[in-house]
Fold this sequence. Notes:
This protein is of the alpha/beta class. The protein has helices spanning 34-49, 95-115, 131-138, 165-173, 175-183, 190-196, 208-220, 224-237, 242-256, 260-271, 279-287; strands at residues 4-6, 9-14, 18-23, 55-60, 64-66, 120-124, 127-129, 141-145, 149-151, 187-189, 201-203. It has 2 domains: 4-220, Alpha-Beta Complex (2-enoyl-CoA Hydratase, Chain A, domain 1), CATH 3.90.226.10; 224-287, Lyase 2-enoyl-coa Hydratase, Chain  A, domain 2.
Amino acid sequence: xxxxxxxxxxxxxxxxxxxxxxxxxxxxxxxxxxxxxxxxxxxxxxxxxxxxxxxxxxxxxxxxxxxxxxxxxxxxxxxxxxxxxxxxxxxxxxxxxxxxxxxxxxxxxxxxxxxxxxxxxxxxxxxxxxxxxxxxxxxxxxxxxxxxxxxxxxxxxxxxxxxxxxxxxxxxxxxxxxxxxxxxxxxxxxxxxxxxxxxxxxxxxxxxxxxxxxxxxxxxxxxxxxxxxxxxxxxxxxxxxxxxxxxxxxxxxxxxxxxxxxxxxxxxxxxxxxxxxxxxxxxxxxxx
Length: 288
């Protein structure tokens, strides 16, 4: 995948295959525009198809993870940085344009994040509101700094959580708590977010990068084929009947059981040693 500085974020890859996507406009509280979202979609597609990437971590700089859409910068599109995709008209100047823009850009970012089969982590260094909040909810894991604050609060402006946030919140908290959270326009502390099940862990701000990196390395060292298929199966199970979920994971098991990782996993148990997973990835990197 392409590494470097783009519109609103930077990309770097660390061994063993951890892609860090860092929002880098702290003066804008890392607010997003359509251009940023389109570049993020392209970046995620590249990460999905790159065998050198095993885990994706999002984080921010300054006081915010991402404080939502940057309305002032929308017309400019953060043109100072090179883009991964060419510019396009804003498209929000009428009702159908807003409808299409949401489906094809804003919602597409979270849809892309959810369909990626590589583990994703949101390291919430500060405020995560609206767009930033829904992006974090679309990740598989969320680790928050102690001073982070999370919420949607779109009703404060008579707007809706239009990027799929309402669905993600129902999945994480259930119907009753989601109604309370959104209709009462709540923005919660990291501690309360942990109690609500919105984040997995809360750590001191100075330890956030270390905590996210430790989790990323743990996931990157795991059997990648089995982990990716299991991730997809878990998300599918949330939408399927029990019978459908059983059939779905049986099909994936037919692949995993015959993969070299599984053979070495079984052999390592018999031989009482640590398994040697991902030889296929190591060979790919060596040949590249």
